[in-house]
Amino acid sequence: MKVRYRSKFEENIVNEIKKKKIKYKYEEYEIDYTQPAIDRTYLPDLYFPKTNIFVELKGRLTIEDRKKHLWIQDQTDFDIRFCFMNANNKIRKGSKTKYSDWCEANNFIWCDKNIPLDWMKQ
User: Fold this and answer.
1) Does residue 41 contact residue 30 with C-beta atoms inside 8 Å?
2) What residues pair up with 46 in beta bridges, in sequence order?
């Protein structure tokens, strides 16, 4: 069965991981979290079992994404990191805050364009 990716960016990253012959799982794990007054489930893009790291691949980091990840961070102990298509994008039009700035301000580990090898294997 052919995997259907949610974006070309996700597909490109996964293809690079495949070329390196690194074990990964794409959208296999569901992480439950509670949005105030609403139970929800989050489906991380990638999970690397050797490092126990989840990676969310982001072209856009919307306000909804930011809220969701702050709730998940507050309610779970998972190591969830971001890989951005462009970490220098602003969180909204007219803002001075870049995606990378938001991650650093909220204690999220992030990378730009390519996932570091040490996130994938030890």
Assistant:
1) yes
2) 26, 55
| Closest alpha carbon to 112 in 66, 59, 53 | 59
Tens-digit pLDDT profile for residues 6-58:
899 999 999 999 999 999 999 999 999 887 778 889 999 999 999 999 999 99
- Give the list of residues 6+ apart from residue 80 with CB closer than 8 angstroms, or none: 44, 54, 55, 56, 69, 72, 73, 108
Residue found under tokens 């293809």: 15
Around Cβ 61, how many Cβ atoms within 10 Å? 23
The pTM for the full model equals 0.76
pLDDT of residue 2: 82
Please list, residue by residue across 27-37, b when 16 or more beta carbons sit within 10 angstroms of its beta carbon and e when fewer do: eeeebebeeee
Residues 99, 61: Cα–Cα separation, whole Å: 7
**Thinking of the domain 46-119, which architecture would CATH place it in?**
3-Layer(aba) Sandwich (3.40)
Distance CA 18, CA 1 (A): 16
